[in-house]
Amino acid sequence: MARPESELTKKWQNSTQPLVSVVCITYNHERFIRDAIESFLAQETDFAFSIVIAEDCSSDNTLAIVDEYCRLYPRVIKLIKNEKNLGVIENFFRTIDSVTTKYAAVCEGDDYWTNPHKLQTQIDFLQENPEYSMVCHPVSILNETQNCAAVKKAYEKFVSGHFTTRDILRGHFIPTPSLTFRTDAFHLYDWMLACRSGDIALELILSLSGPGCFMPEPMAVYRQHDDGITKKGRLPPAEMLEKSLFLFRAFDKLTKGIYTDGVNRRLAKIHFIYAVGRLKKFEICLFMFHCWSAMKYAVKGIMCRSKADVRL
Predict the structure, then answer these.
(1) Mean pLDDT of the chain
(2) Are both 200 and 241 inside the same structural domain?
(3) Element spanning 78, H or E
(4) What does the CA dihedral 159, 44, 111, 135 come to, rounded to 10 degrees?
């Protein structure tokens, strides 16, 4: 069990209002939620923080475990008990939207942090660099099936450095349990609730308010397990494809074509990935369709970029 609440809060410089909220959504995480909460409570900070746990009507003992911590840490932990199961995406965005602190840090109930100075390090950076909207870092991947851990590879250029909206459009490289951001950079749009990849939608929206910083040190663990959303909640390929395309088209509409070239290149990449998958299953007609779609969007991306360069 983590240190008592009185010891946790003694370095908070008599602060009465938390500066950052740790946003943790959870559903059927009875095997993991203690690791997550304990890693939050292990944080060493000179500012107050709160832990907001949104429990999505679990059918196991997750709620009972969270209630136990709420009784022990009433000043620090806030529990949101959903009246009905919202699902991962709506629970994620509704919880973030409810946060009133200046900053928010994200970690789902089956992941956890490994560095007790993670919050202090990330918040210090954002305080000193107000032009940045978010900060993140690599994570270790814990594969329960294989019982091994390895550092997740980001783009090599982001081992350390800053990134922009166009970088996020090129491909996903921000591990969700690593993300800390300014809440005034977050805006919830209806189309985000219909997305499959809430983390990518969040990162794109945040990036519109300023660049992000990718710190080099891994400070969290992303857990892969059979009950995780990436495995248990996997949709049929056609539905997955449609939701992926919908996200980027909605973002393109929101930004009024400013990033159309980047969006088209991402759509081309998505279709190429699906083409490879169809080829592996000898689905030749679908393979040809996705190849054609990939080439179409790739050409559109080049044409849009060329027009933008001419205007400049």
Answers:
(1) 88
(2) no
(3) strand 77-81
(4) -30
